Amino acid sequence: MVAQMRLLVKMRFAMVMQLLIAFMLLTACSSALKSSSEEQTDIGPLPDIRVALNAYGLPVRFFQADAETKCGSQIIGYRFVVWLNDDTVAVGFNVSPNCRQSPDRQVDGLARILVFNSSGVLKAKRDLPYLADGNGELVAQGEARPGPGGTLLFRIESVNLDSEGRNQSRSGVRLLDANLKDVVELDEFLEQTTFVKNALVFGKGSALSGSLTYSVLDGSPPAEIQKWTLNWPVGTRDTKFGEHGFAFVSCTQELRPGKYTSANMIYAGANIRCALNSQGEDKSVWSFPLKDGENMAIVGLLGDGGVAGQARDGHTAAGRLMICRKAGISETLPWLPPQFDGTVDSATRDLSRYASFATNDAHPCNVLVKILGSACDEGGYGRWFVFDRKSQTPIVNREFPKNGRAALSPNGLHYASFESNEVRIYSLPALK
Questions:
Q1: Is residue 100 a part of any domain in this protein?
Q2: Over the stretch 113-139, which tens digit does the pLDDT of each residue have?
Q3: Which of 33, 248, 330, 427 matches a 20 to 30 Å C-alpha distance to 59?
Q4: Domains: count for the chain
Q5: Per-position b or e across 148-158, b if 16+ CB within 10 A of its CB
Q6: Which of 358, 308, 321 has the alpha carbon at shortest distance from 40?
Q7: What is the pLDDT of residues 65-119, one digit of tens each?
Q8: pTM for the whole thing?
Q9: Does 432 reside within a domain?
């Protein structure tokens, strides 16, 4: 596991440097995009429910802009809001300190999780101890997300000392039901969850030494429903799994005039040609070529066989959100204004509605946060967008604090936010 984590850190570092270079080139060429002169008008409902969380133990300074910045890269903290089903939302935060009280005293982590129904009534509460102190190592911030079978996935990424006093990384997941009772704890590295059912994808092996084996687990408690042994082709940029298939983006680069070559190394300034590739259980494969110069971050595999992705060519921060299908068929979806940088943060299973927290301040910190989960100054604001696939304009577009969290309900009829010491629940119009 230690070797795997070290490899992961190296791969992530390489990815960070590649994307950071591209990001800085983008911002150098389009500094006008980060201007605050392009105002956005707030659109969307007022909250139906507001629950003050100070009475539930939320630390007083939790939402101050500098609450995590001093020690956030060495101490693991949690802040999240997650829908477990259409009527149940979980909110989590660390009640333990974000910094050591003294240099020689480690922080003992304690996360508090509260579960409310959509009317704001508390249904369950639990405190989870966790290893918070990185012992001087860089740590990723705590994470929680929807798990399979309506569970809460509480991700474990920690650093502890072995018998010889050396730092040793640990990675795993803990699944809790809607009453916050334990379902299972799995001490394996979580690659990702699937888009439709939030099934767990665990990977073993090394791309440097040969093939990798991926297991897909669904249900509560989770059971293996699919297993893949793969050797990604040279030039693979992004990979995503569904319950019964997978997709990947492959790219070639123009290393000599007019000659495009597959390579795992990304060469700055080289022209690229990429394609989205999808394979199902029956081994059938289809490919969708992207425009010259475009790369794609895969959002997920849909239940109807389509693959959603965010294509970017470097000319706009937002890129374009699209669904690709067999036979070269594609659909471009309503998406962010061009100057905003964001990803699909939560969505309905069929992508009829989806949401994104996005910023236009063009700060490289945003890239590092998304890739490493590392701490950055979360002061200031971005914007929270909710889209309906049948409307060309967002149904929600409002200012939102960077240190807040928000999520769309599974049926797309509500969204919840964790901000300004409150959990808030909003009703959205019926789907068209």
A1: yes
A2: 999 999 999 999 999 999 999 888 888
A3: 427
A4: 1
A5: bbbbbbbbbbb
A6: 358
A7: 766 566 768 899 999 999 999 999 999 999 999 999 888 899 999 999 999 999 9
A8: 0.87
A9: no
